[in-house]
């Protein structure tokens, strides 16, 4: 229906996609947007501990999608992930295998290791 798209709206801030189009969100660009993050190219995980970033502001990472199709379990996933990581650190001693310090090769623009990292994990007593 041609009346569906006839309006006086300013269309320069979004795109109209043809039916059947596939849309991909560039997560890398979302996580390195200088308008949203201070020094996004720097590895600073402590930025998420800063009180100026409220939990609701973390939508900027787009890790769980956004809008109506956002992951319904995102809050639960974050809570479980934080608790699980904490328990692993608390319950186990972690040490890299010999030579792993040099194993820094990654696949482009991802956190996947080109060669899987190996560690020695022993229970804390």
Automatic annotation (TrEMBL):
The entry's localization annotation reads: Membrane
Q: Which domain of life is it from?
A: Eukaryota
What GO terms describe the biological role, i.e. biological process, of this protein? Answer: ent-kaurene oxidation to kaurenoic acid; gibberellin biosynthetic process
Q: Which InterPro entries match?
A: Cyt_P450, Cyt_P450_CS, Cyt_P450_E_grp-I, Cyt_P450_sf, KO_chloroplastic
> Keywords assigned by UniProt?
Heme, Iron, Membrane, Metal-binding, Monooxygenase, Oxidoreductase, Transmembrane, Transmembrane helix
- State the annotated membrane topology for this chain: Single-pass membrane protein
Query: Where does the chain bind heme?
Result: 71
Question: What molecular function does GO assign, one term?
Answer: heme binding
Give the chief site where it resides: membrane
Cellular component, GO, one term: endoplasmic reticulum
Needed co-factor(s): heme
Q: Where is the chain membrane-spanning?
A: none
Q: Which family does it belong to?
A: Belongs to the cytochrome P450 family.
Name assigned to this protein? Cytochrome P450
State the organism named in the record. Nymphaea colorata
């Amino acid at each position: 229906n041609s009346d569906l798209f006839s309006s006086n709206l300013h269309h320069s801030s979004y795109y109209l996609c043809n039916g059947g189009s596939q849309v991909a969100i560039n997560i890398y660009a979302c996580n390195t947007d200088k308008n949203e993050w201070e020094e996004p190219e720097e590895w600073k995980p402590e930025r998420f501990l800063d009180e100026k970033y409220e939990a609701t502001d973390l939508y900027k990472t787009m890790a769980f999608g956004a809008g109506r199709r956002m992951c319904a379990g995102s809050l639960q996933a974050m809570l479980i992930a934080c608790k699980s990581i904490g328990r692993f650190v608390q319950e186990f001693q972690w040490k890299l295998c010999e030579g792993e310090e040099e194993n820094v090769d990654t696949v482009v623009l991802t956190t996947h290791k080109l060669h899987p990292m190996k560690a020695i994990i022993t229970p804390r007593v």
